[in-house]
């Protein structure tokens, strides 16, 4: 196997680097210093608080729920989080296996069904899997290792302290040795030890954790086509369905004629499904379903349906006037969400001001696997097989759809062919459940790509206006940011046009700049479609606006981008919420701020690492430029340095450096793959992803008008991971790579050509 | 009625001969390694080999492959150890994995025709295969890696 740390490209650049921080002197104040924590000796495991306990159904740390050992020594570990490509199905069990000294080659992983009272929270989003479960996994593994040692000690009549558990073997003081399988029954019958009774490994004893050498558990199945995704379960007697959904959310069919559809060979029946009105929550949109003997017949049948749609209350939604309205709203004072100092006085007294408005269209997730689900409704209950991020919510929603008690419903979680937030909202599962009940047979509902593009839960569209006050020396004295965007809340509750504080806390109100006067406001925007979360959520428009604005200020003030960022970020410190004009209970991705502070030094560090990595400041050929941006989200810090090149009238990004500080790096190999993925998705957001509406309906439909970055235009990414000991808490990885990418590309494009773009998507043309 | 040799075994399909090969493979033959991603020839998730050449199964009718040899990811190598599959594992290419059977089938056919490709040839050959997770860097590295083993 090639070592992923080796240089992989012909260019000879290592594509992942563990980059230690050497803090450059900050504006002449402090000298370079290494973080004290780096000098600390390897140590065992001091538990710390996370937001995991505050999640619905919290954390379950009972090893008997997650671990079983067969007499032949096979260790079976339960993965209770959904696998959508981040690696959590491998990484959490890997942590358990390491702490219990199991040999990874003898570990089997099984997927938990949706059952949060049993397994704890299963809501796989928010970049929480490792952040909330690394301690739980160590505790479970450590407990089982202790139980194995105690069982061995009893067997041999020795002190458990004299027993060593090593690589699937339990060893006594005088050469005794038993395998895990030999002691399985006795070990699992031991009382589960308390955290304090367990002698955890010190970090230098980790075998798998932090190494990045364990391959994802599904690797062989994926490469041979035997991995099972949502549409890959085949049940005896199963029917295949596709659905014609109302083009406008809240619309319905006034009438429909299925005569021709029913003539298509293979089509068996046509059913009208109940319609949803806003707030829809995760209920299906309704429509006319065609049930057939195979997917092709179902889609052919659907093409033959004649439907007269009533658009309903959202038929007037059109993106162009809506955007103009949002921009107009941003020109007036809104509701204040953060108020530090007196920004109005700073703006009124400024020698110079700078104002810009940054906008973004909606985005659809388009996971490679479009939504699909299989349901089997029988007298015994309802059984589901589906790719879902939140299987317990799915279970409750599916139960509600067919009028069953959730106890009568089982949700089996398949692999997800990508999720990105779309598959937290399992409207497609409820559709399958409804249809299975109607036809009295198992039903697979398949969404076509067009269905997926046209009926998503869209990332919000937004207008972000920033006004900056400057004094005579060119110093920034005030920063006023107004955000106008329809809220996710509108999907769950009657819409009043206001965003949630947590949407603003994603990269806007938590602005870590060292400025005397900061105000954040939001203006009203009513939603006319289903607004949902998309990988990194509101951080995208906020980082886009803030990062682009920093680039523009650098140009205005004749500074380089790095200098501008570092001046605004200021000296290394933890953001003082009170001084920043923020409430004590400020939303910090659900994490206690004392354990997960907002640290400006770490922000500056990743910026410097990315900038140094790409050689920021070096001479570049005509038509090339480097853009920088840095952003904290999901309690991690990520900087992006993008070398943008205009070639044949097209915007290309030949090279990108992603520097991440996610605390302790549990699985560097998957962190690297997430940074590579975030670079591509961020670039797709920057150049391509624009969902627009007319007459309430989505205008795009498939890759030809909603394209993505492809292999002829992807950035070569160098990933830098800041190494930390376990005591620097592991934080999010799946999402935080995305936000800094689009402003870095915009700043790079400006550096290359002088062309400043303020709307996402920017388009591919230079 | 359409007869094709699917992964070396002759198989008869009674379905509508205009049915795309993709759905015949998935729904009728029950081989689910070949994926649906767009149904329009735009993403490559459904890539299979017809007489050794990579085709988009969603754009290929059953009728058009009458009497021909069709290979899916399940039939690429009896042990699943085609050099491209091995390279994919060596370099830990997948994230969610959904696009990967199509990527592997595309790469395998391409390397069959162009055993020692240049980088530009690799990028062009693979550009019809979307990976929404963004594994392109590793995909390209894996094709290069496999090309030295074919
Ligand atoms: S499904 Fe055939 S190319 Fe996309
Ligand atoms: S690995 Fe997820 S789409 Fe390619």
From TrEMBL, chain A:
Domain of life (superkingdom): Bacteria
Record SMART domains: Ald_Xan_dh_C (SM01008)
Signal peptide residue numbers: none
GO molecular function, one term: oxidoreductase activity
InterPro entries: Ald_Oxase/Xan_DH_a/b, AldOxase/xan_DH_MoCoBD1, AldOxase/xan_DH_MoCoBD2, AldOxase/xan_DH_Mopterin-bd_sf, N-heterocyclic_Hydroxylase, OxRdtase_Mopterin-bd_su_IorB, TAT_signal
PROSITE patterns: TAT
Domain called Aldehyde oxidase/xanthine dehydrogenase a/b hammerhead: residue spans: 224-313
Residue ranges the record marks as coiled coil: none
One Pfam family here: MoCoBD_2
Ranges annotated as spanning the membrane: none
Name of this protein: Twin-arginine translocation pathway signal protein
From TrEMBL, chain B:
Swiss-Prot/TrEMBL keywords: 2Fe-2S, Iron, Iron-sulfur, Metal-binding, Oxidoreductase
GO MF annotation: an example: oxidoreductase activity
Domain 2Fe-2S ferredoxin-type: 1-76
PANTHER family referenced in this protein's UniProt entry, alphabetically: BLR6218 PROTEIN (PTHR44379:SF2), OXIDOREDUCTASE WITH IRON-SULFUR SUBUNIT (PTHR44379)
Name under which the protein is recorded: (2Fe-2S)-binding protein
Taxonomic source organism: Alloyangia mangrovi
Lineage: Bacteria, Pseudomonadati, Pseudomonadota, Alphaproteobacteria, Rhodobacterales
């Amino acid at each position: 196997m090639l070592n992923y740390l080796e240089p992989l490209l012909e260019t000879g650049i290592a594509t992942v680097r563990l980059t230690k921080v050497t803090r450059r002197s900050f504006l002449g104040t402090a000298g370079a210093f290494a973080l004290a924590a780096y000098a600390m000796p390897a140590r065992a495991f001091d538990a710390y608080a996370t937001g995991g306990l505050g999640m619905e159904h919290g954390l379950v740390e009972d090893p008997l729920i997650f671990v079983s050992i067969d007499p032949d020594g096979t260790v079976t570990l339960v993965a209770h989080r959904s696998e959508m490509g981040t690696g959590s199905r491998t990484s959490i069990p890997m942590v358990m296996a390491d702490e219990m000294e199991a040999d990874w080659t003898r570990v089997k992983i099984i997927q938990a069904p949706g059952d949060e009272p049993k397994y704890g929270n299963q809501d796989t989003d928010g970049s929480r899997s490792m952040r909330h479960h690394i301690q739980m996994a160590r505790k479970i593994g450590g407990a089982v290792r202790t139980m194995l040692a105690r069982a061995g000690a009893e067997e041999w009549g020795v002190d458990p302290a004299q027993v060593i558990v090593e690589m699937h073997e339990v060893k006594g003081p005088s050469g005794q040795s038993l395998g895990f399988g030999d002691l399985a029954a006795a070990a699992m019958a031991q009382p589960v030890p308390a955290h304090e009774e367990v002698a955890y490994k010190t970090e230098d004893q980790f075998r798998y954790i932090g190494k990045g050498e364990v391959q994802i558990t599904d690797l062989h199945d994926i490469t041979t086509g035997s991995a099972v995704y949502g549409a890959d379960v085949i049940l005896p007697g199963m029917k295949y369905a596709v659905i014609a959904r109302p083009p406008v959310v809240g619309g319905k069919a006034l009438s429909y004629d299925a005569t021709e559809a029913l003539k298509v060979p293979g089509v068996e029946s046509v059913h009208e499904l109940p319609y949803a009105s806003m707030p829809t929550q995760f209920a299906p949109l309704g429509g006319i379903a065609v049930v057939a003997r195979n997917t092709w017949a179902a889609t052919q049948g659907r093409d033959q349906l004649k439907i007269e749609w009533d658009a309903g209350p959202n038929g007037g939604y059109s993106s162009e006037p809506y955007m103009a309205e949002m921009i107009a709203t941003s020109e007036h004072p809104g509701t204040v969400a953060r108020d530090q100092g007196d920004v109005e006085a700073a703006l009124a007294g400024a020698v110079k001001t700078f104002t810009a408005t940054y906008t973004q269209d909606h985005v659809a997730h388009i996971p490679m696997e479009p939504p699909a689900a299989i349901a089997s409704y029988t007298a015994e209950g309802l059984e589901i097989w589906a790719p879902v991020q939140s299987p317990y919510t799915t279970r409750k929603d599916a139960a509600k759809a067919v009028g069953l008690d959730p106890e009568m419903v089982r949700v089996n979680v398949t692999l997800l062919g990508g999720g990105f937030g779309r598959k937290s909202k399992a409207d497609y599962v409820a559709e399958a459940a409804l249809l299975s009940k109607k036809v009295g047979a198992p039903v697979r509902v398949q969404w076509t790509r067009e269905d997926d593009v046209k009926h998503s839960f869209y990332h919000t569209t937004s207008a972000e206006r920033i006004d900056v006050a400057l004094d005579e020396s060119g110093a920034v004295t005030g920063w006023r940011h107004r955000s106008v965007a329809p809220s996710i809340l509108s999907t769950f509750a009657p819409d009043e046009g206001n965003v949630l504080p947590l949407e603003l806390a994603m990269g806007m109100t938590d602005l870590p700049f060292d400025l005397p006067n900061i105000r954040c406001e939001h203006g009203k925007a009513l939603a006319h479609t289903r607004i949902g979360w998309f990988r990194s959520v509101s951080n995208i428009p906020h980082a886009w606006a803030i990062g682009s604005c920093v680039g523009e200020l650098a140009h205005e003030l004749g500074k380089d981008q790095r200098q501008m960022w570092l001046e605004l970020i200021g000296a290394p410190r933890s953001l003082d919420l009170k001084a920043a004009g923020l409430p004590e209970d400020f939303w910090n991705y659900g994490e206690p701020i004392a354990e997960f502070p907002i640290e400006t030094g770490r922000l500056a560090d990743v910026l410097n690492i990315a900038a140094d990595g790409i050689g920021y400041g070096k001479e570049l050929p005509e038509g090339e430029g480097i853009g920088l941006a840095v952003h904290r989200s999901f309690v991690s810090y990520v900087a992006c340095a993008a070398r943008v090149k205009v070639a044949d009238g097209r915007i290309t990004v030949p090279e990108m450096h992603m520097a991440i500080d996610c605390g302790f790096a549990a699985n560097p190999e998957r962190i690297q793959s997430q940074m590579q993925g975030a670079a591509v998705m961020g670039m797709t957001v920057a150049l391509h992803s624009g969902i627009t509406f007319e007459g309430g309906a989505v205008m795009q439909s498939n890759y030809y008008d909603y394209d993505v970055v492809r292999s002829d235009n992807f950035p070569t990414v160098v990933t830098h991971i800041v190494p930390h000991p376990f005591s620097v808490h592991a934080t999010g990885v799946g999402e935080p790579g995305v936000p800094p990418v689009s402003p870095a590309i915009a700043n790079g494009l400006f550096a290359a050509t002088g062309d400043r773009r303020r709307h996402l998507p920017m388009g591919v043309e230079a | 009625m359409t007869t094709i040799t699917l992964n070396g075994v002759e198989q008869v399909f009674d379905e509508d001969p205009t049915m795309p090969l993709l759905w015949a493979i998935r729904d009728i033959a029950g081989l689910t390694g070949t994926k649906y991603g767009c149904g329009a020839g735009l993403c490559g998730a459904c890539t299979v080999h017809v007489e050794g050449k990579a085709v988009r199964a969603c754009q290929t009718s059953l009728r058009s492959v009458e009497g021909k040899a069709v290979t899916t990811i399940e039939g690429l190598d009896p042990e699943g150890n085609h050099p491209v599959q091995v390279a994919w594992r060596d370099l830990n290419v997948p994230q969610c994995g959904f696009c990967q059977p199509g990527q592997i089938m595309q790469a395998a056919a391409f390397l069959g025709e162009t055993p020692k490709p240049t980088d530009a040839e690799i990028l062009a050959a693979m550009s019809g295969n979307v990976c929404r997770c963004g594994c392109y860097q590793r995909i390209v590295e894996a094709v290069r890696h496999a090309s030295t083993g074919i």
